Amino acid sequence: MKMEKAVLAVITTQREKIGGGAPIFLCDTKEEMEKIAANLEAILDGIGHALSDQLYIIVKH
Amino acid sequence: MNEYTYPILFGVVIGTIARLVMLRTDYRQYPTYLHGKVIHISLGFIAAALGTVAVPAIMEKEFTAVTFLTIAASQFREVRNMERNTLTELDAYELVPRGNTYIEGIAVAFEGRNYLVIFTSFIATLSFLAWNIWIAVISSLICFFVIRKFMSGATLKELVNIEYQNLHFEGAGLYIDNIYIMNIGLPQRQEEILKYGMGFVLTPKNFNVRSTIANLGQRQAILHDASVSLGVFRDSGTPALVPLIKRDLDDGRIGVFLLPQDKDVDKAKRIIGAVPVLENAIRMPSESKANKKGNKSR
């Protein structure tokens, strides 16, 4: 099966809520999280999506 | 020199001119280069010659000679393949691709135009031989008008009403009117999109149009044409900045999200209105027999 979409990275400030397969980046503040998400978006050629104020994912479309 | 020299010459010239008339370089930028044009003019010349010599062949009672027209048919199918392959290869390097439906439409047009050339040359030579050169000139002119009519299909402004709508975010969701486009997480990207983006809502004028504009190929064609004419605020490696079209499932309207370099609302409306309606995207649910019967019984 061809994977069309994949979560490449998870960026969060809420340590306790996450776990699992994708690389996880833990941040202390919202600003730090946005900065890392912006960098990862550029590096991974994915799109940064906000699932909540504490949780960003980078998705390859 | 024999009795057929002038009619054949006339037919070939008329056919080649017909191909030239149909070969235009416009915003679609294809065929752009001299070599691309040379290929199509040469093929047009061959088509014209084939259409022309069919007439004397029939007059000399060489009926089997007509079978070479079938060779012409397979030859021009090859043209269609060639166009399809070239455009598909190039499409991978477009910032906003044409999409396969659009490419197929262009390829079919290239094949079809060669048949129109055969038809024109055939008519021209036939009327030259059957009557005289003046009748031949008149019938060639009629052919040119028919060709012009065949060439231009419908455009979007005949099918939809286009209105400008502001983009707005609800949380991370980007919306045009009430149509959800995509989730943009980063505040930085959101600002860029609000600054550079434009939103349009296309409202179908009738029920048939709904399925036509819902076609993914037709939607991609709109995005491609708009991006070609207005520029696009995008680069490789910025997948978040991508023009998109999404559909309102309730009433079949579509929301067009563009990232133009030239933010001129009226121009953008004109450009979207001038997008060709792709033949392969046209649907006619109202022509269905089941539909018609249903209406009668009501």
Can you walk through the features of this model?
The complex is a heterodimer of chains A (61) and B (298). Chain A contains 1 helix and 4 strands, in the order E-E-H-E-E. Chain A starts with 5 loop residues before the first strand and ends with a strand. The mean pLDDT of chain A is 86. Chain A has 61 residues and is an alpha+beta fold. With 298 residues, chain B is of the alpha+beta class. Chain B is 57% helix and 12% strand. Chain B is built from 10 helices and 7 strands. Chain B has a 4-stranded antiparallel sheet. Chain B has a 3-stranded antiparallel sheet with strand order 2-3-4, covered by helices on one side. The longest helix of chain B is centred in the middle third of the chain and has 31 residues. Chain B is elongated, with a radius of gyration of 24 Å.
